[in-house]
Amino acid sequence: xxxNPIHREIKSQLARAxxxxxxxxNQININRPKDNQTSIQNLSNKIxxxxxxYSEILEIATILNMNVIxxxxxxxxx
Length: 78
Description:
By secondary structure, the protein is an all-alpha fold. The protein contains 4 helices and no strands.
């Protein structure tokens, strides 16, 4: 399952930002209430399985000083 596109993209963006998943989880937990914190294992499992919530992806993007951008794709005539 580690070859899913969500896993590849998040790991790529972490590497580009020079951060580890541990550092990201620590930052996430600073911003969350005690009863809603996550663990490295929990977030890693969600990323690996591709079950991570969109809101969690936005949290990661914010920590990495990035934006999630939706852009329209153009369909080529076949």
